[in-house]
Amino acid sequence: MEGNSGKSILQFAPFQSSVDEGFWHRLSSLKLNKFGIDDSPILITGFYAPCSHSQVSNHLTLLAESLPLDSSEESSVPAVSRGNRNRCSVPGILYNTNTVESFHALDKQGLLKAEAKKIWEDIQNGKALEDTAVLSRFLLISFADLKKWSFHYWFAFPALVLDPPATLVNLKPASQVFSVEVAESLSAAFNDWRSSSLTADVPFFLVVIDSNLHATIKHLKDWETYQSAADHKLLFGFYDPCHLPNNPGWPLRNLLALICSRWDLKSVRFLCYRETRGFADLGLSLVGEAQITAPQGWGTLHSTPNAVGWELNKGRKVPRCISLAKSMDPTRLAVSAA
Amino acid sequence: MVLSQRLHEAFKGTVEKITGPRTVSAFKEKGVLSVSEFVTAGDNLVSKCPTWSWESGEPSKRKPYLPSEKQYLITRNVPCLRRAAFVEEEYEAAGMEVLIDNEDNDGWLATHGKPKDRSSEEENFPSIESLEINKNKSVKSSPSQVGGEDEDDIPDMADYEEADNIEIDPGTYLVAHEPDDDNILRTRTYDISITYDKYYQTPRVWLTGYDESRMLLQAELVLEDVSQDHARKTVTIEDHPHLPGKHASVHPCRHGAVMKKIIDVLMSRGVEPEVDKYLFLFLKFVASVIPTIEYDYTMDFDLGSTSN
Lengths: 338, 308
Known about the structure:
Chain B: This is Autophagy-related protein 3. Chain A has helices at about 20-35, 100-105, 110-125, 125-130, 175, 180-195, 225, 250-265, 325-330, 330-335; strands at about 10, 15-20, 40-50, 60, 90-95, 140-145, 150-160, 165-175, 205-210, 215-220, 235-240, 265-275, 275, 280, 285-290, 305-310, 320-325.
């Protein structure tokens, strides 16, 4: 197993997508009743949560609520309510094309760059410190074949590329890094953070351990306040959807880009926050140290760095497809009801 | 869906429309829940097991008798590492009883854990005809995900493969291991939801399955993860009351009676069960139906007050 000691390139486990059937049902209804042939991009919301089981990663999930409400449905409940610990919002954009040809003709690299540019600008103008959810964005391209009730789609999770790549100094389960006292204090602080509706869905944060070995979780923007206090130990934390013991998950990439760009740190201590049964699990959570060699002139860069992030389908660069004829096709529904 | 099942659903729908929801508690007497007791028990589940949340579901399907933001409970991405169908075969081959729950098994659910005891149970089921599932069908059938069939309907994506010049930066991308490990292949995940069934006045469990690449599983394949005693009898594939599509569900017709039995056993031991713990007891019972799906129903606390 690599990455436990010595220097190696920091490798990240890609984000994985998961689409609830309800998303496609609502998209179909919007397409038929509201959008028609208008194929302008629409803003959608994805949801994720920290990994909550040692054997499966969490996913970026799309639900019916990811889409705007169909105009025919009136509701007093807001489309996306904040503060749900199992649903941290991730802003996304959907390009749904009218034909399979235009789906394949989309300029994927260009679309990815456009989303990466938004992330880069939010880092530069400080918005990413105020609302850290914008550090993770996603892009979905799709073609909804409403004659056959099949959906072709492809996700991208834009990540700004550090060049040269960050190297890993060490990476260990958090429980092996902290003393029992710190670990207890840290677990309690995490469980408070995760159970308050004000912070439960804030995916990036700062872990502060003071000289009395007392741990607190602070907002990312508080780094500027704490960095001067020499007797504090600081770690950059994020909700890690990944379960792997030797790799951090995808959201760390843009966090490192922010740290590198705004604060120009050479060495970054980070914490991949993971849970078991909904509570902080420091055996599963990882603490690591990465070294960043700041790319030339990053702080003052006007153009957006290179970005990667198209999701692979079983290791291949191909879109996914799902057929929902069984639950959507009226003739089949009539047959199964007979 | 078979005709008798359709008729029963139609009947049930009509009864639900013309009768009001239960308001008087009959938890200890009948093992059922009133609407407000369901909400109380759900609130307790969400607070003790935070992987569960309340959701409001499709606005058009909202039930007026439940709070709009508390229509049903759901826990997502629950791992299922082995097929229940295989596990039982293994146990049976070893000449053992199927012992469903191995942690703090104190026997009070034994009648549901052992397949041999089912004959007496079975007679009591209303005649819901079982789904026609071919027993000999290979469990490892290849088109596991939705869309696996109807291949001719789907344009051949291989034509487009790798045509795009998309970058993946192999240096920092962790490319997943080839799925040569059998465990990875078999790892499915489930979204489990609990709705309130107004007709039976009990909670009802629904399963939505995903394969290892998080593609929707055909509802029929979900039955591989159901205890084989239940797969063709109590677990059926029906419309979800709050979500689109067909989902596997544990039919609630016997839930009240089973819960009543569990409550009686607890009371005979001097434990007075509290209604807000109902869903923990209920989920423990459901574990005998879906033994390999590792959802959370932590029971590290008292089930009720001990009366003496």
